[in-house]
Amino acid sequence: MSYISLYRKWRPQVFEDVVEQEHVVRTLRNSVISGRIAHAYLFCGTRGTGKTTMAHILARAINCLDPVNGDPCNRCEICTGILDGSILDVIEIDAASNNSVDNVREIRDEVVYAPSRAKYKVYIIDEVHMLSTGAFNALLKTLEEPPPHVVFILATTEPHRLPATILSRCQRFDFRRISAEGIVARLHKIAAANGITLDADAAGLIAKLSDGALRDAISLLDQCIAPGNEVISYNDVLSVAGMVNDDFMADLADFIINRDTVSVLNAVSELVAQGKDTGKFIGDMILYFRNMLVCKVASSPEKLLELRGDVIERLKKQSEKLDHNLLISIIRDLSECEANLKWSAHPRILLEATLIKLSEMNLNIAENDVLTRLARLEHIIERGALTGAAGAAGETQKGGADSRPESPNETAGIEREPAGDDKSGYNAENNKSVQIDGAKSKNSKKTAAQEFQYRRIPEWDQVVTDIKNSGRMAIYLYLVGTYAVELGTGAIGVVFTAENRTIKDYFTKTENLDVVKEAASRRLGRTVRVKFIDEEDISGIKEEKPDTRDEVEEKLKDIARRHNVPLEVVE
User: Fold this and answer.
1) Rounded to two decimals, what is the model's pTM?
2) Which of 186, 232, 234, 366 lies 20 to 30 Å from 78, alpha-carbon distance?
3) Using CA atoms, how far apart are residues 551 and 207, in angstroms rounded to an integer?
4) pLDDT digit string, tens, across residues 119-149
5) Rounded to an integer, what distance in angstroms lies between the CA atom of residue 174 and that of residue 27?
6) Which CATH number describes the domain made up of 246-367?
7) Residue 436 near residue 542 (C-beta atoms within 8 A)
8) In CATH, what number does 460-560 get?
């Protein structure tokens, strides 16, 4: 006799042996005991959860001559005939390869005939969602009112693809994913029966890799037994599954955190030399950084991660060096690499480029992470704005009725730096003034341009927040760390500091400039023009005077809008 795979050899023969589907077992067993047999059942669930196995057990149970507590006896002539295929009253159909209208018409023509030996003629249609629309329509009437001696059992992994008319005519049972504990217990039972010693860590890894599918777990165990090992260790499972061990993955994560690109490239070279699957490795890396993220945000990661204690401890130490937003960004980049890998002709190069990029992302983590910088800047701005507002209020109250009249520049909202040593109400962080056209000299006569001072616009933070709330996150992130100053009538300047001036070119695009212009005009309550300048170049910018042409153009546009007259401005 040829070798029988373990998952076939250990397929449950009675309801009692089915692993962790008690809600389905209880209902079907009671149906058999009471004789309340439905004409159609629908078994739904992911692969390897027992749908087809349950269908076979039910088919024998309802036809068994001597059922035991709802279970088939598997000894009577009907049960043995169904098991060895000598009784043709139980018909199993693969809808993936028999999905045409003609195949269903054959079923419809055959159901009128009574079963040859059994009580019920049972049709088990596996992967029923693969039937064509015409085949579903042909099955519909037969499924609704079959002869009393016919039972349909439909099995599918994608119930959402079934027409509602089919779903409404079946008793539906949803099969759950099998827990890791249930899979491990079953694996130990099978290994013991075959004289194999299965390490607890190895069983746990098999359960994790199977993702709730018991059939996959048993198949992987069968593959581990095939080399003739009497003891199956953790590393044996890793070797069979084509995975790298936890130490390799942890070392690679350390290389990325420490920006050791040479070691990263050496690790990739070792990975390729061992013949590991690049796509699977990327998936394992995503899972590793996901586990690191769990250790970062969860107080008790041991309850969420099915890993060895030493692995969790190392994950905790690594997570302390990374911000959780950076971990999310790493997972996103790895996922993008995984998606692109299947279309790449050079997967190794793509993998190396991605890992080097991740290494560079960790340069000055605390300083360069955008969201970390944003939180710090918001905190500084909030404290500084309050101080500046209080100082401004104090300065106004101090002047009182004896204060000198405002100059034209002050009327336009332009502030001067407090003279002499009187710095009350002056906030160096948020209201510092920038002198234009040369340094101020106490002894030299000042020109109008030299006395012109740029004032920071306190509403700028609200403008940036408005852009964020509108969903323009890219523009919002580029504006983090900038501030705005008045350039004169109708114009403001967005100032980029030395550390973020390289992204100023992003706003050369008209659509990005318009977003900033609209947000600033709406928040400031007036139409403004926006210029983007570097902080070190601000001293070379002259005060902008009102543009008579622009004023005339705006008046013409306003008149046209009020009278609903189309207006086209030609340069």
Assistant:
1) 0.59
2) 186
3) 73
4) 999 999 999 999 999 899 988 888 888 899 9
5) 12
6) 1.20.272.10
7) yes
8) 3.30.300.180
